[in-house]
Amino acid sequence: MTFQHVTVLKQEAVEGLHIKPDGIYVDCTLGGAGHSREIASRLGPGGLLIAFDQDDIALNNAKVQLAEFGDRVRLVRSNFRFLERELSKIPEVLKDGVPQVDGILFDLGVSSPQLDEADRGFSYNHDAELDMRMDRTSPLTAKDIVNDWDEKEIAQILFEYGEEKFARRIASKIAAARAAAPIETTGQLAELVKEGIPAAARRTGGHPAKRSFQALRIAVNDELGAFEEALEQTIRCLAPGGRAAVITFHSLEDRICKQTFNKYVARCTCPSDFPMCVCGTKGTVKLINRKPIEAGGEELGANPRARSAKLRIAEKLET
Ligand SMILES: C[S@@+](CC[C@H](N)C(=O)[O-])C[C@H]1O[C@@H](n2cnc3c(N)ncnc32)[C@H](O)[C@@H]1O
């Protein structure tokens, strides 16, 4: 299989990190290695890029994609929720025993190959065994959730993570179907979701199963929990002057990013309509952009996935 993922906001995110040739950078979401390649190409012999992914297929692809950079790039197979623990194992990163790096990037969500490969069980477009795990060694699958979780819990995740108006109706269809026989495939689930949505409402908003599949994927991979934990660790692991650049695709992810960054600029006294912090009162970080950066017309034309992308950048201050 060829591993093809079109990188979103590549220049904007990497420029936002202010790469120094001899700096140490972390890409928490290696994926198709698009951002990693861009970062690595800006590093000199003294620089280091550490790239995380929890998906073994992404890592195997990246080994080839990034081979030319030699030991300037190090790949880590781990959930990024263990960022601090994993960085603590890398001697070059430690300053007085704690990890300190010059930039950390997140490009959240799934890669195109995860969605497009039928046997990953993420997609309503391909009938396959229901799965949706980014990390194929983790115990919880989408099949477990739809067959074993309480109907109310299922309705709740469809509503919260998928903003699905018909969450309760869909959860009730799922509960009725599984009482007869386990739900095994993406095709079966897509059909049940469709049945749970009134015919008139199915005519708008793309594929009727889109929101429910997104919600299940977020739950299977605990995407919001992992991100929240990792972003707190990110602030700690940045050296003074180091930057965090975060690309989100979901309103709940963007909210976590905005609230976490804001928590650490609490003492900034700039008026809220200023585009950046200029007051000089120091919190732990300053925001580089108050409004998220979004993809421009050209990128949107070439890559519809970029439509919901929002990039926020913050810089760690001297303490
Ligand atoms: C949108 S893709 C990244 C694409 C990449 N920036 C590029 O340009 O090709 C997201 C990647 O992050 C990985 N990922 C998502 N959540 C993760 C987590 N909690 N820990 C580790 N990797 C994660 C996914 O497996 C996927 O490969």
Description:
The chain folds into two domains: 10-112 and 223-316, Vaccinia Virus protein VP39 (Rossmann fold, 3-Layer(aba) Sandwich), CATH 3.40.50.150; 139-220, DNA polymerase, domain 1, CATH 1.10.150. α7 (151-162) packs antiparallel against α8. Helices cover 40% and strands 15% of the residues. The N and C termini lie far apart (48 Å). The strands form two sheets. A seven-stranded mixed sheet has the order 3-2-1-6-7-9-8, with helices on both faces. The model has no long low-confidence stretch (mean pLDDT 94). The protein has helices at residues 10-16, 34-41, 56-65, 83-87, 112-116, 142-148, 151-162, 167-180, 186-196, 199-202, 210-220, 223-237, 251-264, 297-302, and strands at 24-27, 48-53, 73-77, 94-95, 98-99, 101-107, 238-248, 285-287, 310-316. The chain is globular and about 60 Å long. With 319 residues, the chain is α/β, with parallel strands linked by helices. It is built from 14 helices and nine strands. A hairpin with a 2-residue loop joins β4 (94-95) and β5. Bound molecules: S-adenosylmethionine. Residues 5, 7, 29, 31-35, 52-55, 58, 79-81, 107, 109-111, 134, 226 line the site of S-adenosylmethionine.
